[in-house]
Amino acid sequence: MDSINRNQEEENHENLQGKEALKKIKELANKNTCFFCTGITTGKKITTRPMSVQKIDEEGNLWFLSANDSHKNRDIARDSKVQLFFQGSSHSDFLSLYGKATISKDKALIKELWEPLLKTWFTEGQNDPRITVIKVSGDDGYYWDNKHGNAIALLKIATGAIMGKTLDDSIEGKIKA
Question: Whole-model pTM?
């Protein structure tokens, strides 16, 4: 293997599917904010904006609230393929997830996903006529994490630096939802 991983003695690659993939998506995407990218298959510059995940359901779908007149909604209407980027900390909890976005005006979902802070963007509250629900169904992605938590990972990195040896606690792999 021609990479930094060749210096690592421990196995640090694990692809995840099914329930394990769903568990990892929920763990890493549950940090609430991501970079939501549209236009990823158009051949033009992608558009990226921060978005808050309102919910991750049992199938691994991610739910967002958005305005019907937003650039994001227009982008999704042209190309439903999206990519989401999550970062939980400066050294772990990274996730890149590809999926298909769909837009709905389902009032029951809006009510379920509503939080008072959202009135900043939807000034008429949860009955604001501009509110839409975006559902992202993940297809596949890639994750980077650590195996034993941030404290152990930091200890292994510091010990490795002192010893001049790679003692990284990382784990990474493909995710197939």
Answer: 0.82
